[in-house]
Amino acid sequence: MTLFLYVFWIILCGRIDAEILLTGLAVTALAMAASRLFFGYTLRKDISVIGRIPLFSVYVFILFFQIVKANISVMRLILDKNKHTEPCMVTFRADLRTRLGRYLLANSITLTPGTITVGVEGDVYTVHCLDRSLLDTSRDAVLQKWIRRMEK
């Protein structure tokens, strides 16, 4: 992380000279000290985050696919005159262990067309759906499975 911040500093400055390099070193050291003090940053956490990058990349691809699928479903609901939509509020439990996992699921649901996460209390989600068919609340739902994999 320190190296990343230092390189990012140099890129943002746009030129390389002794002043930029020394100032960047001081700013990076200050940022790392603050992150250790206030956010509990450790090298072990940094390594665990780096190890999750491949899983997160796959998750982003799956989320994109789910968004496209939901867009098609919402278009069908809107364009089909014979189909009657029934907006509803759905409450379900997701057995995710971390706050980050719960946060990721809530935001992923909100990003998917036709659904909005209204509230999260512990592991209980309340979601507003344009139609009940747009939300998969099962434990085997694709997004939940991938988030559980990233939590391990």
In N-to-C order, the SSE pattern is HHHEHEEH
Mean pLDDT: 88
Main sheet properties: 3 strands, antiparallel
How many strand units? Answer: 3
In percent terms, what proportion of residues is strand? Answer: 5-15%
Main structural class: alpha+beta
Strand order of the largest sheet: 1-3-2
Count up the helices.
5
Question: Total domains, how many?
Answer: 2
Please outline what is shown here.
This protein is an alpha+beta fold. It is built from 5 helices and 3 strands. α4 runs antiparallel to α5.
Give a verbal description of the structure:
- The chain is of the alpha+beta class.
- The chain folds into 2 domains: 2-39, no CATH class; 52-151, no CATH class.
- It contains 5 helices and 3 strands.
- The chain has a 3-stranded antiparallel beta sheet, with helices on one face.
- α1 packs across α2 (18-39) and α4 (99-111) packs antiparallel against α5.
- The two termini are 22 Å apart.
List keywords for this structure.
single chain, 152 residues, alpha+beta, 3-stranded antiparallel sheet, 62% helix, 12% strand, elongated
Topology of this structure?
Blueprint: H1 2-13, H2 18-39, H3 43-79, E1 88-93, H4 99-111, E2 115-121, E3 124-129, H5 142-151
Antiparallel strand pairs: 1-3, 2-3
